[in-house]
Amino acid sequence: MEQNDGRAVFTKEMRPTHTILVPNMLPMHFKMICRILGQYGYRCELLETTGHEIVECGLKYVHNDTCYPALLVIGQFIDALQSGKYDTHKTALMLTQTGGGCRASNYIYLLRKALVKAGFGYVPVISLNFSGLKDNPGLDFTAPMVLRLAYAVLYGDLLMMLRNQCRPYETEAGASERLAVEWTERLTDDMRRGRGMNAAAARRNYRRILADFEAIPRTAEKKVKVGIVGEIFVKFSPLGNNHLEDFLVSEGAEPRMPGLLDFCLYSCYDGIMDYTLYDTGLASYLLYRIAFAVLIAKQKEMIRIVKKYSTFDPPTPFRHAIKRAEEYIGLGAKMGEGWLLPAEMLELIDAGVPNIVCTQPFGCLPNHVFGKGMMKPLKSKNGDVNIVAIDYDPGATRINQENRIKLMLANARRAEEAPSEPISLTDETEK
Question: Which pLDDT value is given to residue 104?
Answer without folding.
Answer: 61
